[in-house]
Amino acid sequence: MFSSLVNALSPFFLNPAIFIPGAALIAAPIIIHLLNRLRFKKVRFAAMEFLLQSQKRNKRRILFEQLLLLLLRIMAVLMIAALVARLIVNPNQLAILKGEKSHQLVLLDDSISMQDRWAETSAFEQGKKTIVEIVEQGSKRPGTQKLTVLLLSEPDVPFINGEEMNEQFLIKLIEDLGTLKCTSQSLELLAGLKSARDRLQDEQAISKTLHVISDFRAHEWEAQPALGETVKSFEEADIAVNLVKSVQKKNDNLALIGLEGELQSAAVNVPLRLTATVRNHSDKRVENVRISVIRDGNELPVPFSIDGIEAGKTATKPFEVVFRTPGRHKLKVSLDSDAIAEDNSRFLVLELLDTNPVLLIDGNPQAAEAKIIADALAADPSLTGISPLIQSPEFLRRNQLDRFRSIFLINLANLPADAVLPLKKYVEGGGGLVWFTGELTAPSFFNSTLYEENGTGIFPVRLGPTWNEIPRGDIANLGPMMNFVDHPMFQIFQGEENPFVAAVHIDKYFRLADDFPQRDEEREDQVRTLVTLSNGQPIAFEHKYGQGTIITWLTSAGSDWNDWAQNPSFVIFMLEMQKYIAKHFERETSREVGVPIEIAVSPSAFSEELEIVSPDEKISRIKMVPKTPDVEPEGSEAAANVLLSTDYRETGIPGVYRIVLFNNDQIPQERWVAFNPPGNEADLKLVTDDDLQSMAGSAAQIQTSDDLDWVHKSDPQQEVRTWLLVILFLILMGEQFMAYRLSFHSRTSGALA
Amino acid sequence: MTHDYRKFLQPEVLSRISRLEIRARQVVEGFLSGLHRSPYYGQSVEFVQHREYATGDDIRRVDWKVWSKTDKYYIKLYEEDTNLRTTLLVDLSESMEFQSGAMSKYDYACTVAASLAHLLLKQQDSVGLYSFDDQIRARVPTSSRRNHLHAILQALGNEKPAKKTGMDLILKQVAEEHSRKGMIVLISDLLTDRDQLFKGLELLRHRGHDVLVMHLLDDEELDFSYSGTTRFEGMEETGELVCDPRSLREGYVEAVQNFLHELRRNCAKNLIDYQVIRTSEHLDAALLHYFNHRIGMRQGVKR
To answer: Of A240, A502, A638, B35, whose CA is between 20 and 30 Å from B267?
Structure first.
């Protein structure tokens, strides 16, 4: 009985057990009053007439005053009992009378930095604990408060939407939060704040509170003043803001922020050179950073390590991996575990062929020049991983070009009309193309068919009617004949004097048309001059066509027009150029977590069902829907415009996602995409309380999730000690006044007669 | 039960008031020569006027000196001194027994009566006494003999307050029994029907009596300083009341004041001397104050 009473009172008192006996004391003034009525003295009185008169006249007033006095005394006892039992009053409960509730909105940061771990907990777990505490407190007064929880990863789709706080909800919430995982994404707190503000502004609740549970990293708050401004705007909207810090101190963290390599040249059995980039976000130098490499699920026996990384610095570690089989491969590179586990790994997906096929089309049936290039690219295919294929121009008409990493077009007079379109499509789709001119080159065909205004064709410039010849003796003493611009392809020749390149002599080259601007600045196109001769004439260009890259040489590949082929630098340059332009099969295979996978395929090639296998081996079966692309591809047929498409958004976990498409014969075709954690969340430096307060404005309360006392004390539930004292004081004053009024006091001048 | 009536004569009081003269404010009729002027002309040393002789006049009072000069018979008229006939009316109703201090109103009234009687007899005035409640309980005829005091004291001492007050009958009876003008001293708490009281007093005044009202009240009756829950049981069957007296005090005091005011006003209207005397006051002080004040007010009234 007593305990059930205590339970019933627990929402209102911190010490409900004290209040019950305290409340029982209100009987004391009543009993005293009744005893006074029973215990009286007797007086035989003569002037009863006047006494009865007075009694008759004052009967009502006396009754009222005495009741008032009794009431005041009872109130005083109650107030004292409430003070001792520590009454807590929820102003929102007043709102219940009006049928309104208070609304508490929790914006829970679930970005990767919230995975920050220490001891047995993590920032995200602390955040979840805070929510449970808020609801636990709210459910002590069931029916008075509503809870909405927004996750930063999905600010527009509430995790919990305006649920009433009570015991049942608490149990459900604990279950739901138990399965809630922190994402590995970098998320925008600003978007979450705006969404929360929109949601609360529309709310009719009488009191609105926003709890922002986050780790408040310095890099985020210092870079975005709009965050502070947005928090301030809550004050204007009459919304209380609690900034709940789920992390109290900065933990050391290393992050693997990059994993790059020359994937376009990767081939079976050819060592693939990769570079891991590690950043030290701690305040001290870290020694001996171990990097383990996991190839297709098996860790390589010998880990690599970086000797040491200074505080706040980045270090790179090059290493080589060899793949023995063709096909798709998955590569995971990891650091040892630290505060944030997920930024210690990066993933890479490779699609390896036995070799990288390169198509060499030589206009000369002898194909002498093509052979020179083939030798340069694949003197030993096991070292370069390249398999050159020398063909005549006719090949372009009859065969699929997509499988070639790059195509070299050497000394062509012209191209068959039906070869131009496949070539264009190939380059548009990301293929690499190299032009070499020569004696067979017909400028009129190039200018009319391949060149388009402003460098938008697959040939970048208009050629002059004939080639130029440079006599050897003229420039014998003029130094290097070719001047390279700063370009990745030529990086290897730069820095120090390179005698090999300097020795190259260009005998013949095609001039540009006389009316064609020679210098890049004079043209308004995307064509970039890469090499000029010492006489100022450009002989090599680079330009983009669709997704592909085209390099154009106005001299020959073989030794007819120059002696580069006899120079040792030729092989190196050809390999570099092939690497640079080669079709990037992996172009879209590495993304940041959270970015949706957009799939659009032709309904004629694939069925509408597809499967996506996430890194945790969860299989999602998705049905694609027909959709008309916004931009109609040029030259495509109307029927082919409709594509089956879908957006897969659950890419929160870093790792490799396998997209399994089924063709019309239900034969699966896989695409792999690697999702990596964002690099910008690894810096765990916290914004200081002072800075945060000044940015967020004085109205925002900074709280911690370590010590949750504020949940009990803070608005909307407050201990009203001061108010009780004031009320008690007033009651006692009133009691004294009434008691004085109702009692006899001799007056010095009151003697009658 | 016989009271020790001598207690009403307090030597220290008598010694203090012995120098007082009780004088009627108006002309009174008495047998003896005394301090008071009489409406009658008689044998005295104080000549007033001449009057023409009429048949039946005492020849001895003819002023022969006037006859010798005017040849007409005139007789000399002298002012006659008379003694004061004072009747003391002492209220012996139950309410007079109320007592919060050293003396009850009854004791105080008796003491006042005894002291006055002593004083009056000493100055050779004649004194009578009525004690009454709703009827006359004791009656001592008017006399100026010195041993008359004993009879008065005995009458006072033999009675005990018991019944209700019935003022109208008493006053009417007193008026009827006292045809000669004199002084009537009413010693009472006046807790009775007010209309009857005023009628009676008015009647006495009509009969030409000089009326003195000594209104005795206890301190508690005036100040009502009781506290704590109290059951008030009314004397003279006036009911009872349980109350917190502090809460009623204001109303009570106001009612008493109204009562006193009404009395004062009525008495003043009828030229009745009215005096409230607290039983806590020293009797001699109260009498001294009162009679000195009265002498100051004294106006010769002669018909």
So the answer is: B35
